[in-house]
Amino acid sequence: MMLKDTYCGDLRAAHDGQRVRLAGWVHRRRDHGGLIFIDLRDSKGIVQVVLSPNEPAAHAAAHRSRIEWVLAIEGVVRRRSAETLNPKMETGEIEVVPLSCTVLAEAQTPPFYINESADVEEQLRVKFRYLDLRRPEAAAWIRKRHEVVRFIREYLYALDFTEIETPTLIKSTPEGARDFLVPSRMRPGTFFALPQSPQILKQLLMVAGFEKYFQLARCYRDEDFRANRVAEHTQLDLEMSFVEPEDVMALIEALYTAIAEKFVPGAIQWQPFPRLDYQDCMARYGIDRPDLRYGLAFVDIGAAVGDSSFQVFANAFAAGGEAKAIRIPGKADMTRKEIDELTEVARSGGAKGLAYIGFAAELRSPIAKFLTPDEIEAIRASTGAQQGDLVVIVADQPAIVARSLFAVRDFIGDKLGLKDPSVLAFTWVTGFPLLEWHPDEGRWDATHNPFSGFHEEDRPLLDSDPGAVIAKQYDLVLNGVEIGGGSVRITNRADQAKVLTLMNHSPEAQQERFGVILDALEYGAPPMGGVGMGIERLMMALFNIGHIRDVTAFPKMSSGLDPMFGAPSEVDLAQIEELGLRLAPAPA
RNA sequence: GGCCCCGUGGUGUAGCGGCCUAACAUGUCACCCUGUCAAGGUGAAGAUCGGCAGUUCGAAUCUGCUCGGGGUCGCCA
User: Which ipTM score applies to this complex?
Assistant: First the structure.
C-alpha cells in the first residue's frame, strides 16, 4: 500500500472531514513555538498542515523538520475558519490537522531557493537540476512538454500512423553537421555515428511498405550551441507514402492547428497558414523564417530611384545591387540617437549605412539634398508612407540588403513591442532552391537535404542551371522560428545519383555513403514525403519560453558540458585500449 | 575561432583606487512565541571579492593573462 492516498494539491473544501494520508516535501515552515504550520508540497501542489501541541509526537517531528525534508502525514482535512482562509492558495479553503507526522527523509539546506522564483546562476541550476525541478514552475514546463507530446502521439495514432523506433548507432555520413562518433569494440578502429536525424531510415521504412510512420526521435549534432539549439534534441520525425507536398503540409497544418487550439486557444493569427514563396519571402523579409506577427515588409524602391544621381544608390545599382526600404509608421520623430542605433544594426548586417527620410511636416532627411523632389515623391508613393512615417533605406548587394534590413526589421519589432507574445503566426515557406553553390568547396550542396525531390518541369535545369531547380521542400515557421520542415523525396535511383553527383560525390563515394538508400530505390520505392519537426522549438514558440533548457529535463550548458555528471569525462585507459584507440598528446 | 556581457558570504545583489576590519536582503543556527501563510521578535555564525601575474605607498575596484558562465557571428545537409 502506498504511503499516501491523496495528493496535497488535490485537496479542496469538498474533502472537509475526510481522513487522508499525505506525503511530500516541506515547502515552508512557520513555527510559532506552539502552533506549527507546514506547507507540504507534492507533485500536484501545496497544502497547509497545522500541528498543535495536542499531538506531541507529530508536533515534535514538525518542530525538528526543516525545508525540503520529506514527511508522511496522516490527518483530517478541515475547513478553515473565515478569517484564516487563504485565497492565494488553491488549497486555501482547507488545511490538514495531523494525527501523526513521520519524517521519511531529512535534507540538507538546498544550494538555492526552491520556494522562490529567484534568478539563480544557470550552472548551479543545471548541476542541481533535480532540485531545480522541484520548483513548480520548472516542473510545469516538463509536464507541459509531456502533454504536447502525448497529444501528438494520440493524434497520429488515430490517423493510423505506426510509431517505429530506429537505431541510434548508425553509419557516419559526414554531411553538414559533425557527427558524434562511437567507437566499436567488436571491430577496433571503426566507428558508429549517432544519427543527425533518422532520414534514411524512415525512407527505408517507406520502401518497406509501412506507408505511415512517425517517431519522436532523438537527433544528435556536434555543433556549437545557441539559446534554441543544443547537441541533442527531439524531433517529430514523420514520413508518408503516396503523397505530394500538399498532403504532408495539410496533415501537419491540421496537427499544429489542433495543438495550438488545445494549448493556446485562439492564438493563431493567420488561418489557413500563409504560404510564402522562398524568393518572395527573401525579397520581403530578408530571411527564410520571417516573423509574421508584424508587418514592416521591405519595399523595392529600385523603380523610384533607379536613375538617381545620388552616389550611394547609383553605385549600388552599377554594381548589380538594389535599394530597399522599410516604412516605419508614425516614427518620423525618432530621435537622432535611435536612428544611430538603427544604423548600427544595419551595419551589423553588412550595410555601409542606413539612409532615412522622415515624412514629418518638414522633410527630415540627410539624403534629401541628393534626391530630386520627384524621386522623394516616388519613394513616398512606393512605400506608401504617410505623414509622420519614417522610411529607412539600404542600397547594396542583394545579400547585404537582405541581412541588414532583416536585422533592422527584427530590431524594430523588439523595440516597438510588435512581437505580440500572445499570438502564434504560423507560415509555410516553399519554393526553395534544391541546390546552392558553395564557392569555397567548388560544388553544389543541398539547401535542405540531398534526398529532397524536385519539380518535374525543372528536370532539364539539373544540367543547364542546377541553382534554378526548385525543391519539393516546405518549412514551417512560427513567430520567426523554423519549427520544422520536410520534403517529398527523390524515389528513383538515377535522379538521386544525379543530385549526389552534382554535390561532387564520386560514384564510389555515393555507393559507400548512400548505397543503402540508392539500392533500396531500385526495389520499388513508393512516392514518399515527410517532415522533421523540432519539439523543443515548438514548445518555446508556443509558450514563449526563452531557453531550450527550460523544456529539457536534464540539459547541458552551452559549452556542451554536463555539470551534473561532469560529462564528457575521461575514461579508464583499459576502456580506450579495448576499443583499439590511443589518445594523442594533448594539443599544446 | 571572432565579438559583447558577467564572476563579491549558501543564494541574489551593492561597493568600482584609501572611509572595506567588505554592505544589504534572503537563507542557516540558537532562543522566544497558539492562527500563520514571504509569519514575527532577539541574537549568532558565515566571503582572503573566480585564479594567476602586474601597476601602485595602497587593489574587490586599474591592466594583462587565464578559468568558468551567458549571448551572438561563423557553424548547424
Answer: 0.89
